[in-house]
Amino acid sequence: MTDTRWTAGFRKHGFTVTGATDLPEINLSFIELRHDQSGARMVHLAANDPNCLFAVGFRTPPDDSTGVAHILEHTVLCGSRRFPVRDPFFAMLKRSLNTFMNAMTASDWTLYPFASQNRKDFFNLLSIYLDAAFFPLLSERDFRQEGHRLEFADPDDPNAPLEYKGVVYNEMKGAMSDPSSLLGRRLAAALYPTTTYRHNSGGEPAKIPDLSWEQLRKFHADYYHPANAYFFTYGDLDLKSVLAVIDQEALSAFERRPATGEVPPEIHLTSPRRVEEAFPVDPGTPLEKRALVQVAWLTCDINDKLDRLGLSLLASLLLGNSAAPLYRALLDSGLGSNLAPGGGYQDDNRTTYFAAGLQGIDPEKSGEVEALILATLEESARTDFSAERIDGILHRLEFSIREVTGDQYPYPLVLLMRLIGPWIHGGNPVEALRFDELLGQLRRKLAEGPYFQDLIRRYLLDNPHRVTLTLRPDDSLQARQDQAITAHLEELRGQLDAHRIEEIRYQARELREAQEAEEDLSCLPTLELSDIPPTEPAVDYRKTQLDECPVYWFDQPTNGIGYITLHFHIGGLSEEHLALVPVFCTLLGQIGAAGYSYTEMAERMEAATGGIHARATILDAPESLAASRDLLALKGKALIRNQEKLFAILGDLCRAPDFTDHKRLHTVLNQIRTSLENSIPGSGHSYAARSAAGGLTPAARLREAWSGLEQLQLIKSLAAKSPEELSGFAESMAAMAAQLLSRRRLSCAITGEQGHFAEISPALEQFLTQLPVGEIPAAQVPQDFAPQVRNLGWSTSVPVNYVSRVFRAVPYTHPDSAALMVLAKLLRAGYLHREIREKGGAYGGLANYGAEGGIFSFLSYRDPHLTRTLQVYDDAVDWAVAGRFDDEQIKEGILSIFADLDRPLSPGGRGSQEFANIEQGLTLEMRNALRRRILAIDRETLCQTAARYLSREKRLSAVGVIAGETALRQANQELGEDFLHIETI
To answer: How far is CA 177 from CA 33, 196, 481, 985, in A?
Structure first.
């Protein structure tokens, strides 16, 4: 309950409480404050949660596409008044036990959030973030590093060609080559012709060089003022102490002034528009069925609470699952392979929008897609949605409100994302978290008449502000863009006088010297090893046996939700079927079962569950690289009142999945293909490393087959078949279901509140009783495996590179695993960040040691270099072997490891993770033994370990690269006998 002191009118440390209320539906108390002197706004969510979060956001609407807001977000974190070091943000990543640290630029706001469970750490980071946001140095040198700069290809040779460099410049080159990102950016430009959303807040690569340092500084002065600031805190904080720090270290230095950055409503179009744009593909790439089309309408204001909720629910009714009419019409049409990314209701901007479309179409068919969408909407406007469908989407809304998430992003950040849009556009932030009253209004609207049909008419069919965007493939676009940049740079080169040439050389030399200089970081706060909890807390559970099946019960505060995890062990599968396990998992939740069609199954899941999905899972043996426990993990979640229905659905899926609808199989296979293809620009570094590691251990081999480019190749071959050609595949799926989904292969976990277990148990028992008994699976034994090293270059349409080198190392319990974990952190922070990101201009330079899989990796992300990066990796190993690091850096590496190890999970995630640990044989004692070994690491051990596994003389290592074909062939001219075997994605 809200502390009685924190009521409207209460004043503390320059803040006045303007509102306070309890939010019982999410077990939080809401306090809203205003800083009297500066006008800054603040929301605090009081919670019984030690993982406390702070964020400060600013309205930052750009008036061009130079990326000023994005580059400022980077540059703000490059040193400040109290902390005048080159990169305090990345330095604090090493000196902290944070559970989350980041910064993010949206279309019209910029946000700086962090979270920590350690109080000392929280206040350390609070000081860093406040000083960075309000008093940054914004040096020209940092602007050139993070944003853009002109340099000679060889900085020491004034006769070399000119190049554009910069972290954001290269990041956005990668982002704007991704059709999914391009679709969203180009749609916004067409849909919002008069407001800030027509601009690319991240920056268009062709426009980024137009931004000046002076413009960057002015943008900060205009928008990063407390009158334009929105503070947010969450957790079991001492709020008074937080307010005191915010006031003393930041806000007391400012006087109130009018807020800036208000975005006006978009002016509505009087007639629909059609727009065509292009995206780059490699020369020779087939252009058929590669286009994307999106039809979008401008809808209501972000603070029209009722219609915003109504449109969100309407999107679920029309597009939310395979039973939804627009979803079904689009995919059953055969016009495309998957829904276009970014569809549904999008409510981030001042004026919201609704979109629907297809990808994988022929460009000339975009008119047919538009006509199909309009016809389907017309039919939906004439036909009432069933009461069952409406109840289903309302149930999903209730579930999403109640569920405490946090496995991917901190739960408080999820809450902040719900309220920041309405808040910065003048709405009441508490209303974004309080649904009971709004749901009451919605139910009254539904009782009065066909509310959803009215929304379709009002915002879609009768709305002239409609844009149809076609994004078509162009196999010469990248070459034309490259030629335009080259011509522009050659023109600039011809205009340089001796003074400007020397200035460019001097600036490059100055930046390089600054990047290489050893900095005194003593002004930055830090934690000590004594701040690290010496042991991992145990996750309590109870084990029972039901019908030969081991069942683990995890008591967690899940807010009235029960989570079920079913592990089916896959020992004894044929090689052919083993490769198909990921496809089988995806299909299982997308097909019919037990006499229900796939649409009926989708409706059942929507009405009674929070989701059901299956995943192919590899649990590495903690004591051996030659063994793993491989399984199919089937997970479901539901409110306690719906547990019986959840288990009934799971039972139907396991007992009688229906693979006979070959057209449905064809549709889902093409959806999988496009989803995997779409994931490459954002996860290219992971794909590159996985492909390289595939020859090093049996588990890594299976990972590549299940979740790497090999899986994509398999899916492409299956998706290319017609429905009539899938009969053999369907028979394989049915045979796998009969073999895998049986009781003797099963172990089970239930996560929920102890008081609800008695309600869950009968449903579980009935499920197990009805499950086929099956055969005891063949035991998985260590494999005879001869490591194979093959350097791979994968060609695809990207203007930047993803470069990896991977090493076979040791398993989790090996004495050297702790040193390898510390080495990964040391190499990333102490060497790769400087050489690959700061000097090389890549968005990221990483090192990682997956102790459970025994693979050590170097990776780069959106990297303009290839062979240089491979040389950096070799030099990094030399740096580590020579011990060119000190005890402070070792301590920072250890802190970084524990920040990862102790990152909190959601209540449901804690049960699921501990169940995986049990199945894996990864005991609490093993985990605590690793903690002790990490804390005992010294410099000599690190040097010896680097030499033992990473040095050229000792390493068992392979390279994996994803890049454009030209970049790969140029690299092979330099690599000699270490050449890349080039394959096409």
So the answer is: 43, 22, 11, 16
CATH, domain range 273-408+423-473: 3.30.830.10
Among 677, 676, 678, 682, residue whose Cα is nearest residue 861: 682
The b-or-e profile of 8-44 (16+ CB within 10 A means b, else e) is eebeebbbebebbbebeebebbbbbbebeebbbbbbb
Cα dist from 906 to 102, 403, 404, 909, whole Å: 20, 9, 6, 5
Interval 823-844: pLDDT, tens: 999 999 999 999 999 999 999 9
Give me the catalytic one of 73, 403, 677, 919: 73
Rg for the chain (alpha carbons), in Å? 28
Provide the 10 A C-beta neighbour count for residue 329: 19
Instruction: Return d(Cα 477, Cα 479) in angstroms, integer.
Output: 5
When mean pLDDT is compared across 275-289, 541-555, 619-633, 683-697, the lowest value belongs to: 275-289
Which of 558, 687, 554 minimizes the C-alpha distance to 610?
558
Rounded Cα distance between 829 and 827, Å, is 6
Say if CB 312 and CB 447 are below 8 A apart: no
| Strands (E) located in 897-973 | 957-963
Is the overall model pTM greater than 0.90, yes or no? Answer: yes
- Encoded tokens for 510: 């100055």
10-263 classified as CATH 3.30.1490.20: no
User: In angstroms, how far is CA 92 from the centroid of its own chain?
Assistant: 22
Measuring CA to CA, how many Å separate 716 from each of 143, 337, 472, 677, 963?
Answer: 43, 12, 20, 10, 20
Burial 589-611 (b: 16+ CB within 10 A, else e): bbbbbbebbbbebbbbbbbbbbe
Active site residue 73: yes
Give the 3-state secondary structure of residue 113. strand
- φ/ψ of residue 432, rounded to 5: -75, -10
| In CATH, 544-770 is 3.40.190.10 | no
**Cα 412 from Cα 235, distance rounded (Å):** 8
Pairing of strands 229-235, 41-46: parallel
Q: Which of 315, 318, 337 is CA-nearest to residue 328?
A: 318
pLDDT tens figures, 47-71: 999 999 999 999 999 999 999 999 9
Q: Residue 129 corresponds to which amino acid?
A: Y
CB 470 within 8 A of CB 292: yes
What would the 3-class secondary structure string for 479-529 be? HHHHHHHHHHHHHHHHHCCHHHHHHHHHHHHHHHHHHHCCCCCCCCCCCCH
pLDDT per residue as tens digits for the range 639-668:
999 999 999 999 999 999 999 999 999 999
Do residues 275 and 292 make contact, with C-beta atoms less than 8 angstroms apart? no
Q: For residue 613, give the nearest of 647, 587, 580 by alpha carbon.
A: 587
Please state, in angstroms and rounded to a whole number, the distance separating the CA atoms of residues 225 and 430.
23
Question: Which residue ranges make up each domain of the chain?
Answer: 10-263, 273-408+423-473, 544-770, 791-984
H-run or E-run covering 381: helix 366-382
What's residue 284's pLDDT? 79
- Looking at the structure, give the CATH architecture of the domain made up of residues 791-984: 2-Layer Sandwich (3.30)
